[in-house]
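Quick review question:
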């Protein structure tokens, strides 16, 4: 049996198949995302979703869906599947007989004695979707119709029937071209073979997106169907459908499909899937960036630096890592990296992103990148970040006289626990946050050591006394002897005693301020209260504020986001800490259990990838984004960690 396959029994069971999603990207920000039977259940779903430069590079659904209909002498058989209130129509999933995910999503439909194979491929570095159809079996020739569903709207929005949409089309080579609204690119729909376009524009009403409704959002929209293609086919026929923002020569479609197919990596093992998932987050579109997650996240600065080592260095790709760093450095402003947004809508609201930058440099040196290169190229960047933190920055970020970093202002959430409801952080952590101070100590210590190697006396004179000061203050401020763990943050009121995973970084980072004995006490408490096979809980179940399920409206989900919800990305740092304290023999079997658990997830939720979060309560169901960069990255780091120690 091939690694990623689904049989008829699974496909026709909509409760099963609609909860499993496929993703394909063009490595330039565009994507295809839908469910196994190709029924859209989210507003983010679509066959051609692209970032549009004319709209600040936000993602837009151009082609939502494409229905195929087999026309025989008996009747018409529509292979599509759509959800409307209280009903599915048509119900084309009942004709599905097989699904194979690799090398590209491939579906087989059977209607009587007719078998049609359908393969979808998103062309790399182009705004183009190709679908190849093969008539594998048919005793007679028959007609096929192809009916496109157009959206032309932002992925965060929904469209409704209107009089503004321009339903006119332009005839192009073996196809038609549309532009529903001013300012959009044209959508060009073509086939590789002769066909007839029947123009009959009409709105289809009330498509229902279950996942949006479950998440507390509006979940109904209308889509424009401008007409349909019609052609006659016979057994053995192979032809390609193209949806693109450019017009292409139809005779090249098959050749292009085949060349793209050869580029697709294998997905025959767990590691293959992780490698493929990792590559989908890397976007090269004038600059090299990391998408935080699919389908709704864009570039996030914090996520970029946390995910980079796993997505690139662990897979032997230091070149891409350096390219991403260079892209981020160009957008740095007074020692702070951009967190979210682009162009004139960029936000610099992450206190930890600049400090995670140092950790990436440490990983590069560990991968044998020359220290001279790191110091020469990034030394000035490191100095700018440290100086900015020391002298004071935006949002009251500054180093106090005790060597610790204070951060935050009313209504702001600057750490990774950043959920905000109606202007109020769910987990207000203004003050000395434990992981920020740990990251600060690691950054300064690393810079001081490099400066010493390269005899930067001026830097050393200013900075070499800081690590000892920070370390002494840190233990006095954060250690809680009676509880045997570190405070999550310290503010004017004193220590916050919430049992959270943020203290793990005081152990996992290369430079630690915590003794081995205290590390053991901390990691053992984390193992008991926070550790699960899917990640670390963000709050101990013993807390009265613990939320074990991540579900419901955005407000309910935000209340649970960092109040017990499990995050896979924390696992890499957990195991780095665990092996420091308990050694290889105790750590490797535990890490192997975690990897086995994630192998099971390759066939659920986001196929061949790892979700953003999981419920805090068993059975720890996957939730949030279907494919998250730092989730995939840290599981890769764990896999390489296990392979290294088992070799």
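Suggested answer, residue by residue:
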């Amino acid at each position: 049996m091939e690694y990623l396959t689904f049989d008829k029994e699974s496909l026709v069971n909509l409760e099963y198949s609609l909860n499993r999603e496929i993703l394909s990207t063009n490595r330039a920000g565009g994507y295809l995302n839908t469910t196994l039977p190709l029924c859209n259940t989210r507003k983010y779903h679509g066959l051609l979703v692209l970032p549009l430069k004319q709209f600040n590079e936000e993602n837009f659904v151009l082609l939502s869906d494409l229905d195929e209909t087999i026309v025989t002498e008996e009747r018409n058989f529509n292979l599509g599947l759509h959800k409307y209130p209280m009903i599915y129509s048509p119900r084309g999933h009942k004709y599905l007989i097989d699904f194979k995910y690799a090398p590209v999503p491939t579906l087989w439909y059977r209607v009587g004695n007719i078998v049609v194979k359908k393969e979808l491929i998103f062309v790399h570095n182009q705004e183009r979707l190709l679908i190849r159809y093969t008539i594998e079996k048919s005793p007679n020739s028959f007609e096929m119709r192809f009916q496109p569903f157009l959206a032309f709207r932002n992925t965060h929005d929904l469209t409704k029937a209107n009089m503004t949409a321009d339903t006119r089309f332009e005839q192009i080579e073996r196809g038609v071209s549309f532009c529903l609204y001013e300012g959009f690119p044209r959508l060009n729909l073509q086939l590789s073979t002769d066909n007839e376009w029947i123009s009959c524009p009409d709105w289809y009403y009330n498509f229902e997106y279950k996942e949006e409704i479950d998440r507390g959002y509006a979940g109904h929209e209308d889509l424009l169907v401008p007409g349909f293609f019609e052609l006659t086919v016979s057994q053995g026929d192979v032809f390609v459908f193209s949806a693109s923002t450019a017009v292409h020569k139809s005779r090249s479609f098959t050749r292009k499909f085949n060349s793209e197919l050869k580029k697709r990596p294998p997905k025959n093992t767990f590691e293959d899937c992780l490698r493929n998932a990792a590559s989908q987050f890397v976007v090269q579109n004038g600059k090299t960036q990391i998408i935080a997650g699919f389908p709704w996240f864009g570039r996030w600065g914090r996520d970029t630096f946390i995910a980079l080592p796993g997505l690139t260095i662990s897979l032997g790709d230091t070149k891409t890592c350096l390219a991403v760093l260079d892209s981020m450095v160009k957008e740095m402003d007074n020692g702070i990296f951009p967190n979210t947004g682009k162009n004139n809508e960029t936000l610099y609201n992450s206190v930890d992103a600049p400090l995670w930058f140092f950790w990436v440099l440490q990983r590069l040196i560990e991968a044998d990148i020359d220290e001279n290169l790191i110091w020469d190229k990034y030394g000035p960047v490191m100095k700018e970040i440290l100086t900015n933190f020391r002298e004071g920055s935006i949002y009251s970020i500054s180093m106090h006289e005790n060597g610790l970093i204070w951060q935050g202002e009313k209504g702001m959430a600057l750490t990774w626990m950043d959920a905000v409801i109606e202007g109020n952080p769910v987990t207000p952590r203004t003050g000395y946050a434990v992981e920020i101070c740990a990251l600060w100590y690691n950054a300064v210590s690393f810079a001081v050591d490099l400066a010493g190697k390269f005899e930067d006396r001026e830097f050393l004179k200013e900075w070499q006394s800081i690590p000892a000061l920070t370390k002494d203050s840190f233990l006095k401020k954060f250690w809680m002897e009676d509880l045997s763990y570190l405070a999550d943050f310290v503010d004017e009121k004193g220590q916050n005693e919430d049992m959270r995973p943020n203290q793990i970084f005081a152990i996992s980072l290369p430079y630690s301020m915590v003794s081995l004995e205290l590390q053991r006490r901390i990691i053992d408490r984390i193992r008991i209260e926070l550790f699960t096979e899917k990640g670390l809980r963000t709050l101990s179940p013993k807390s009265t504020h613990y939320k074990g399920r991540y579900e419901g409206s955005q407000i309910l989900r935000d209340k649970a986001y960092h109040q017990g919800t499990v995050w896979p990305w924390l696992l890499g740092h957990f195991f780095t800490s665990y092996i420091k304290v308990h050694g290889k023999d105790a750590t490797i079997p535990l890490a192997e259990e975690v990897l086995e658990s994630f192998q099971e997830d390759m066939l659920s939720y986001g196929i061949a990838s790892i979700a953003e979060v999981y419920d805090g309560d068993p059975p720890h169901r996957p939730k949030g984004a279907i494919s998250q960069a730092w989730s995939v990255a840290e599981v890769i780091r764990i896999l390489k960690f296990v392979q290294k120690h088992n070799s």
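Why it works: The mean pLDDT is 96. The first helix runs from residue 8 to 12.
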